[in-house]
C-alpha cells in the first residue's frame, strides 16, 4: 500500500521560499535545500543555478513503523508555469528522518524553474 501525502512544500530556484501546511502523516519535508549539479555547492536562498541541472534534497519521514521507507516526490515546472500536483521527479528511498536527494533538469529552454516537494511512504 502506498501512503503519500497530498500536501506539497515548495522551494523555487530563484525565490527559495518554503511553504508549509498542516498535515498528518507523512510529515512535511524538512531542511529543503538545492545544490548546484556538482552536489557540493549549496544554492543560497534567492540564488540561481549555474547550469540547467540542480540537486534537491530534504529530510523525509513520518509517524509510521520503523521499517517504513520514505522518499521525496517532486514536481518541477518552468518559471511562470503553474504546478499541476503531478510529480515528475523522485528522490531515493531512505529510512525515517533521513535525507532524500534527486537530480533535476530544467524543464524549459532556460535554467529558470520552480519546484515543490512532498514526502511519500512505502
How are the SSEs placed, and which strands pair?
Blueprint lengths: L2 E2 L4 E4 L17 E7 L16 E8 L8 E10 L10 E2 L3 E2 L2 E8 L7 E9 L1
Antiparallel strand pairs: 1-9, 2-9, 3-4, 4-8, 5-6, 5-7, 5-9
Give the tags:
122 residues, three-stranded antiparallel beta sheet
Notes on the protein architecture:
The protein is mostly beta strands and 122 residues long. It has one domain (3-121). Helix content is 0%, strand content 43%. It contains no helices and nine strands. The strands form two sheets. Strands 1, 2, 5, 6, 7 and 9 form a six-stranded antiparallel β-sheet that branches. The protein is globular. The relative contact order is 0.30.
Shape: globular
Radius of gyration: 14 Å
Residue windows where pLDDT falls under 50 for at least 5 positions:
1-24
Largest sheet, strands/sense/barrel: 6 strands, antiparallel
List SSEs in N-to-C order.
EEEEEEEEE
Number of helices: 0
Tally of domains = 1
Instruction: Name the average pLDDT.
Output: 78
Report, as a whole number of angstroms, the end-to-end distance.
7 Å
The class by helix and strand makeup works out as mainly beta
Q: What percentage of amino acids are in beta strands?
A: 35-45%
Amino acid at each position: 500500500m502506498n501512503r503519500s501525502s497530498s500536501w506539497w512544500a515548495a522551494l523555487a530556484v530563484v525565490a527559495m521560499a518554503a511553504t508549509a501546511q498542516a498535515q498528518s502523516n507523512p510529515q512535511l519535508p524538512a531542511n529543503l535545500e538545492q545544490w548546484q549539479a556538482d552536489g557540493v555547492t549549496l544554492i543560497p536562498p534567492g540564488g540561481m543555478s549555474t547550469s540547467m541541472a540542480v540537486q534537491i534534497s530534504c529530510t523525509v519521514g513520518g509517524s509510521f513503523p520503523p521499517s517504513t521507507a520514505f522518499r521525496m516526490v517532486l514536481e518541477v515546472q518552468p518559471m511562470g508555469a503553474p504546478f499541476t500536483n503531478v510529480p515528475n521527479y523522485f528522490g531515493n528511498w531512505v529510512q525515517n528522518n533521513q535525507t532524500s536527494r534527486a537530480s533535476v533538469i530544467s524543464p524549459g529552454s532556460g535554467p529558470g524553474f520552480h519546484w515543490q516537494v512532498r514526502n511519500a511512504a512505502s
